[in-house]
Design brief:
CATH class of the largest domain: Alpha Beta
Radius of gyration: 21 Å
Mean pLDDT: 89
Number of helices: 5
Low-confidence stretches: none
Number of domains: 2
Largest sheet: 6 strands, mixed
Number of strands: 13
Distance between the termini: 43 Å
Helix content: 10-25%
Order of helices and strands: EEHEEEEHHEEHEEHEEE
CATH architecture of the largest domain: 2-Layer Sandwich
Strand content: 15-25%
CATH topology of the largest domain: Alpha-Beta Plaits
Length: 259
């Protein structure tokens, strides 16, 4: 039995290994499904909902188990009643994925509208400005207006020191859990966690010395919205003012390569 599964994404067939997630399968053919919480090196959680797509599977006769066919000879596809998160759904034989239909577009617009309803207009001073996924996806999927009453926006602390190196802006955080999962799954040092629930959900550390992980600086890179910044760089320069140069990390004994 083949270890490859063939699916169709927006009319284009692609064969990928079993267990591949829809977002990764789509990327094989150059179709970048927008994401915030998903990262290929960490387990999927489907928290941000930005990757919502239509997923359909071939219909089979309940009595015989055989494929049900249309008049033109193509298999009938059942797309169900709702959208699914492309970062949590694994590919299946004959699966059909739609990433640019009207209902998908509307869902993405609503997600962006929801995120921006509590996100500060810090782009001119944010260290992430110019290389920010939220900026890019707002440009691609934002509606330009909102149904939200901004006077009801919840105010939160903006300069919270989690440790000696990392500062947290709680208003910018979109609760994607990238930083939390990185510390738990990649580093194995879960010194930051989610605290509270609902609109009060926030990143916090309960470690006595604070967010003191050797790898804490990496969380500023994987944060998609600039909620985490480093004390030695914040407000120092804009991305377009810098030239990338290969070098060696001065913060550890391993001599890790960095840019």
């Amino acid at each position: 039995m083949s270890d490859l599964v063939t699916i169709t994404v927006d009319g284009v067939e692609v064969s990928v290994p079993k267990g591949t997630l829809v977002v990764d399968a789509a990327k094989r053919i150059g179709n970048d499904i927008p994401v915030f919480c998903y990262h290929p090196k960490m387990s999927p959680v489907g928290m941000c909902r930005m990757c919502l797509v239509e997923v359909g599977m071939p219909m089979r006769d309940r009595a015989t188990g055989e494929l049900m066919m249309n008049e033109d000879g193509s298999p009938k596809i059942n797309f169900g009643r709702g959208l699914q998160t492309g970062c949590t759904v694994q590919v299946g034989p004959g699966m059909v994925v739609r990433t640019n239909t009207a209902v998908v577009t509307e869902a993405r617009e609503s997600i962006i509208e929801f995120l921006l309803s509590s996100h500060p207009l810090d782009c001119p001073i944010c260290d992430k400005g110019g290389e920010c996924p939220l900026q890019n996806l707002t440009l691609a999927h934002g509606k330009g207006n909102s149904r939200v009453v901004y006077s009801d926006k919840k105010k939160m602390d903006k300069h919270v020191p989690l440790g000696d190196l990392i500062f947290l802006d709680r208003e910018r955080c979109i609760q994607c859990a990238r930083c939390v999962r990185f510390q738990e799954e990649v580093v194995g040092d879960p010194v930051i966690r989610f605290h509270n629930r609902g609109r009060s959900l926030e990143i916090a550390t309960f470690s006595d010395p604070g967010f003191d992980s050797y790898w804490s600086g990496n969380t500023t890179d994987i944060c998609p919205v600039g909620a985490l910044t480093t004390a030695d760089f914040r407000f120092g320069a804009r991305p377009w003012e810098m030239t990338p140069v290969a070098t060696i990390s001065p913060h550890g004994p391993a001599g890790s390569n960095m840019t």
